[in-house]
What we know:
The protein has one helix at residues 110-128, and strands spanning 19-24, 28-33, 38-42, 57-62, 71-74, 79-82, 103-105. It is α+β, with helices and mostly antiparallel strands. The chain is built from one helix and seven strands; from the N terminus they run E-E-E-E-E-E-E-H. 15% of the residues lie in helices and 26% in strands. The longest helix is centred in the C-terminal third of the chain and has 19 residues, at 110-128.
Amino acid sequence: DTDVLVVSRVEGELDGVPVLDFDAGAQHSLACTAQGAAYVWGWNDHGELGTGNTARILAPQALEDLPKIFQVSGANTHSFFSTRPRPNASAATGAIAPGAALPFLVDAHERTFGQLRAMLEALCEDLDA
Length: 129
């Protein structure tokens, strides 16, 4: 028995729609279109799809009432959507200017906020050193 990766075409609401960015979390996927609409699908056990519930979505579904989205990023139990275009990175350093993107979190799982708090506290400790 060998694990086999099967690639298939995403069908549904995104079929034929130009996609600007896409990413995947542990068991969910995200996309944003050239028009700035955000689409989500997959498992949703932690509310990572941002639909206000934990129901699984088997095909891409647009999230309603969001500002124009330019970039998406998925992780284990959460999703990020950026409301500003991807900035041009510095040619010299490859760094992106601070404040160049304004992401917002679509996840209300308590464990995620604990993980983010621990990460920010560790970052602040490094900055103080």
